[in-house]
């Protein structure tokens, strides 16, 4: 707690971006909730049936921070990553930022630190001027015993040569190989695991991925994306993918703690609803993605408007429907954002549509909405972490039938799928009306989604899947070196 508040004060002095302050202060609130509830847990008679998370909570020491690795878990069951103890792992990230790719790699760094691996981190690209986000993320890593090295230089090359395993994060990180390792590249490739989280056209560039066929393995977040990479590398670049492993992601322990804390959820819900000016019984359909055409906010708003007309036309008795668009960034997508605002004005639905600036703190929104809309267009999401995060909060998902969403959402069980593109506008409108008019269906789907998350989309599941891949890659790397 003390640490959090000090960081918060320090950041206020430095006039940090509002979003980050909000994030930290929210995580402080979260820590508070977790403390109070687990404290009371220790003195209260325990219910007969407990979730795994509650079970693990019992051995909490009072000073444990909410972000510390899950030590309790290690005591109770063997950690699947245990074999990584004292292995030297070099992680090369294209950049260090608050975006999905780098944060995931950081999570893996912490999982490996928790089992005693030596982890060294390199960010290939850094802005020339000091950057406070990078500074704070690097400090977070140093606190957890991750070494941070400059991207270029002897130390980087040495570490790459000595490492048991090198993990490259994102296609673009491939630029680091030749630029830094030069003639030593071929020595390092047999122990490289390449983690890929993207599937847009501009990533299929020879300058990024020409070494891909020669690395020990590629790890990709969904089957669809893996198929797409196989196809595109062959057809476009004439190169062959290495052994490819599909590893679905998992929800962090921190997120699950909020999702499973009904007190925290209620407070967050009241707070957010109040700030948006919506009532407790209004129905909130939210899309939570950086605002851009690829994420389909425009088509979602068209569906939303159509659903309002349907409800009016059929004289359906439902609570007021609201649309929340979380992920606004006027500076980045000015033209597209103006288009969205114009549509809302033209259709006179300003009182029903709420825009929220981009934020990393999605838990408060997940706690306050009724349905998540995942409307990513074209090939859809590579995986779509927000989808499993929403399901952890027992929310049904209305998603496009594309990409990773198809591997997460079970149509008619945990949500409803609609086609991408303009063809999807009316089906999504119908699905919105469907869930608005069937409370029971909404709850059942939310519950089924939560069960699915508990079964396969948690951090321990992800760790298990990653462990299998790392074992394979280590085995191959050492064999190649003996030859
Ligand atoms: C692979 O590429 C071929 C030809 O470009 C295309 O017909 C096929 O649908 C693609 N498959 C996938 C899974 O993308
Ligand atoms: C949202 O971002 C815009 C600029 O991108 C800024 O002007 C506005 O104050 C922000 N709103 C909130 C509530 O932070
Ligand atoms: C999902 O279910 C709906 C309703 O039964 C159906 O119309 C639609 O084709 C299904 N979509 C997919 C991708 O399975």
TrEMBL record:
Keywords: Glycosyltransferase, Transferase. CDD domains: GT4_PimA-like. Residues 270-449 form the Glycosyl transferase family domain. Pfam families: Glyco_trans_4_5, Glycos_transf_1. Residues 43-79 are annotated as: Disordered. Residues 65-78 have a biased composition (Low complexity). Coiled coil: none annotated. GO terms for molecular function: glycosyltransferase activity. Residues 43-54 have a biased composition (Polar residues). It comes from the Eukaryota. This is Glycosyl transferase family 1 domain-containing protein. The lineage of its organism: Eukaryota, Viridiplantae, Streptophyta, Embryophyta, Tracheophyta.
